[in-house]
Amino acid sequence: MNIQRWLKRLSLASMLGMFLILLMGALVTKTESGRGCGDDWPLCNGRFVPAYTIESLIEYSHRFVVGVVGIILLATTILVFLYSQRKDAKWFVGGAMFFTVLQAILGAFAVLWPQSALVMALHFGFSLLSFAFTLLLYLVFTKFGEALIRGDGTRLSRGARLSIWGVLLYSYVVVYLGAFVRHTESIGGCIGWPLCNGQVIPEMTGGTGVVFTHRLAAALLGLAILAVFLMIRNQAKPGSSVYQAALWSLVLVFFQILSGGFVTLTIGYDMFLVASLLHALLISCLFGILCYLAIISMQTADHREVQAYAAPRLP
């Protein structure tokens, strides 16, 4: 079999595996199964095969999947460094490996030495970065990979490029706030949606302040992505990779905000777990698309800027 096919298949398996890890991590948090294996790691309550309790099975299944995906990612890393000629692929697989190891270590520490909510919120953030890197790695070996190194012919202004990167960094802050809401168990701080406890601006204390801050940050993210899309629409063709990525980002952030309302409205009902997993799924897709948009924006410098930088300076 052609080595490029192996690279593509293994990168796809790594990406799907990381996506599964994200969802399973959210499931562990939402079902409060983080202590399902007690204080043991890598064993579960002193056993290689855990007792058949729901919490232990959920937690141990998560650990097992992380281990399997880690092996797949390791094999992918070796093949990329040995056989791929693309520097960006090596950066992406290296980043994925680094953050996968980091989030695994943080997960082990959380079991052996319980961490604060501030630290545990980083666990989801590191997993999200691992997924984003594996997504970019997979795209390298698809028809979208060419835009990562040569662009698609679009020329964006410096302001548009800076705005894209600013939105990407800000989206990570919003993700962290969402993870902090989960790990502080503040989800019930705001009853009702879009109002919070029947108020436009509630009393900013305790869980209410945490949840409302996340809601406000998510709304600002939606407006920021809308502003970026409008800028790109004026500078890029509808069929370009830049335009399509910006459009998908706008669609995903819209549904992400709605899914946040869905989570709130299902508190106390059986659909709450489904709504929470949907919320995690959408933010993962949104962050991945924003990362792709940010990378390809680096290849879209306006020709006047390129000429200005390339022109020799007079003494």
Q: How much helicity do the residues have?
A: over 70%
Rounded mean pLDDT is 85
Flag low-confidence runs. 303-315
Total count of domains? 2
Question: Could you give the count of β-strands?
Answer: 0
Describe this structure in words.
With 315 residues, the protein is mostly helical. It is built from 10 helices and no strands. The C terminus is likely disordered.
Indicate the topology:
Layout: H1 3-30, H2 54-83, H3 87-112, H4 117-140, H5 145-150, H6 158-183, H7 206-233, H8 241-265, H9 272-297, H10 303-310
Keywords: Cell membrane, Disulfide bond, Heme biosynthesis, Iron, Membrane, Metal-binding, Oxidoreductase, Transmembrane, Transmembrane helix
Membrane topology: Multi-pass membrane protein
Pathway: Porphyrin-containing compound metabolism
